[in-house]
Amino acid sequence: MIDPPEPVLTGVPGPPEAMTPARLPVPAGLGRLLVLAVVFVCAACGLVYELELVALATYLVGDSVTQASVVLSVMVFAMGVGALLAKRLRCRAAVGFGAVEAGLALVGGSSAMALYACFAWFGQSRSALVGFSLAIGILIGAEVPLLMTLIQRVRRQDAGGAVADLFAADYVGALVGGLAFPFLLLPGFGQLTGALLTGGVNAVAGGVLVLWLFREDLSARARWALLAANALVLALLAAGVVLATPFERAARQAVYGSSARVAVQTGIQEVVMTGGTGAGAGAGRGRKGLGGPLALYLDGRLRVSAETEYRYHEALVHPAMAGGPHGRVLVLGGGDGLAVREILRHRSVRSVTVVELDPGVLRLARTDPGLSRLNHHSLGDPRVRVVTADAFDWLRQQGLRGRGRRPAPYDVIVSDLPDPGIAACTKLYSQEFYGLAARLLAPGGRLVVHAGPPVDRARLFWTVDSTVRSVGLATVPYRLAGRPASFYGGPDRVARPRPPVDEAPVPAPAAAPGPAVAPAADGGRYWGFVLAARHRPQFGLASDAPPPAGLSRGELQAGRRGEARDRMSGLPPSTLMHPRYLD
C-alpha cells in the first residue's frame, strides 16, 4: 500500500539559528580566523585548569599518580557528558557558548583558591577535587559542539574539514597552555593567581567572540545578560587576584597555626617553618622561645621537630658510624644540616659530601637563625662540601665517570630522604638507587636508610629492607620510639599538621638504659631504619663520638631486637618500573 503524500503546511518557521549564516561585522574569512583563535585560547585555558588541578591535588593530598588519574579520568568522562548536554544549546549556539565560557572562567579560575580553602578550613579536599574536575570537564566538553556550530555558520564547509581545523587549533592551544603552566604561570604567579588570571583570559576571549563577533545573533536581553555575567566574573576574578596574598596567608595560618614565620615556594617544594625564634627556641629538647620549638614542613609534611629531631638523627647516624672507619661520609638529602651535625661529632671524620635537591632548604639551613642554631652551623664547616643535585642523578653520574675520575669510595653513606610512601620519592628507594649507592661504598663501608614507620606501615618498611638486600647488602633493621604524631611522611598531607601554639607538645622520651620505649596505644610511633653493608654490619655506638643526648646502647639494641622479631619475609624489591611502596 502506498501512503498518500503528506500535505504541505504553510507558515512553517525558517531554518533554526544553527543552520542560518551568521551576520558578522567582518568578512567571513577573518571571522573564521577569529573563531579559530578563540578555540586556541580556550584550549590553552582548559589545559591550564587541568594541570592546575593535578598539581594542587598532588601538593594538598599527595600521591601524584593517584591524583592525576582521578583528575584526568573524571575530566575526560565529564567532557563527554558536556558534549551531549551541549546538543540542546546548538539552536542558540552564540548565547550558549557565551554562558559556558563565563561559567568556565569562574569555576576554573577560582578552583585553586576553593580547593586550598577546603583543605585549610575543612581538613579535606578530595570531594572538592572531584567536583571541580567534573564541573570543568562538563564545561570544556560543551565548547566543541558549540564552536563547531559557530564556525559552520561563519562559512559552510564539509564536516571533515571543519573538524580538522577546529581540532588543529584546539591541540596547538593545548600545547601552549601545557607549556605556559610550568614555565610561566606557576613560577611567575603561583597557583592561585595563575589560575585566576587564566580565568580572566578565558572570560575575555569568550566575551569578545559572542558580544562582538556574533552580536547580531543576540537579543537585547541576552546581550545585556551576557555582558553583566562577564563583568561579574571578571570582577570576582580581579578581587581574587587582589586578595590572593592575604587569603594564602590566612589559609597557611589555618594549616600551620599562628607561629608560621617562614613560607617560601622554592621551585621544588613549599617550605614552611614555625617557631624557633628567641634564645634557645631552635635548640630542641623541649626548650621554647618566642613562637615555640622550631618545626620545618616540606610540602605540608613535618620534616623536623626541634623537640624530637635529635633522637631521629642520632639513631640515623651513630649506628652507621660505629661499624668501622668513617673518615669519608656521603649524605643523600639532609639539606637541613642536622644529620651532618651528628656526623661531625665524630673526631675522625675528614670530609662530608651533602647531595641535596632543594637550594632553598640549604639556604635556610645556613641563614635562618633558628635552623642554623639547631644544626650547629654544620654546613659551614670546612670539611663539608654541598652539592645541589638530585641524589639519584648524582649517584648515576659518579658511576658513569671513568675509573680515574670517580670519587674515592665512602666509608658511610647516610640516606636521609623523605618517606618512601611519597610517589615522587619512590625512585630514591628503588633497587637501582641502592645499586648505585653500593658502588660508591668502600670495602667495609656502611649504608643507612631512613625507611619509614616500621609498625603502622610495616609492609612499606620491610619492602625497603628487601630492596636494600636485593643489591647484595646484608641488613640490620632497627627502630626507635618517639616519632611525633604529626611526623607523617606518607602519601597524604595532614590538614592540620601541628597543634596550636598554646598546646604543650608531647616531649620526647628520655634516653635511659634498658628496653625501648613502649609503643603508644595507637600502634606505636616509631622511626624505622635499615643499616646495611656487604657483610653483616656491627651494630652499636662509635667510641670516638660524645655520648648521644637522646639514645642509649640498650635502647638501640632493643629496637634492633624488636625489628628482628617482627620481620616480614618474601617481599619483592621495589624497582623503577615496578614501585612497590604504593601497593
Distance between the termini: 69 Å
Number of strands: 11
Helix and strand pattern = HHHHHHEEEEHEHEHHEHEHEHEEH
Estimated helix fraction: 40-55%
Mean pLDDT equals 85
* Strand neighbour order, sheet with most strands: 7-6-5-8-9-11-10
Uncertain segments are: 6-15, 279-290, 487-523
Strand content: 5-15%
Largest sheet: 7 strands, mixed
Query: How many whole angstroms does the radius of gyration measure?
Result: 30 Å
**Total number of helical segments?**
14
Query: What structural category characterises the helix and strand content?
Result: alpha/beta
Shape label: elongated
Provide an overview of this structure:
The chain has helices at 28-61, 64-86, 93-122, 126-154, 159-213, 220-256, 309-322, 338-343, 359-367, 369-374, 391-400, 431-439, 458-469, 553-565; strands spanning 260-265, 270-274, 295-298, 301-305, 328-333, 351-356, 384-388, 410-416, 441-450, 474-481, 526-533. The protein is of the alpha/beta class. It starts with 27 loop residues before the first helix and ends in an 18-residue tail after the last helix. It has 14 helices and 11 strands. The relative contact order is 0.10.
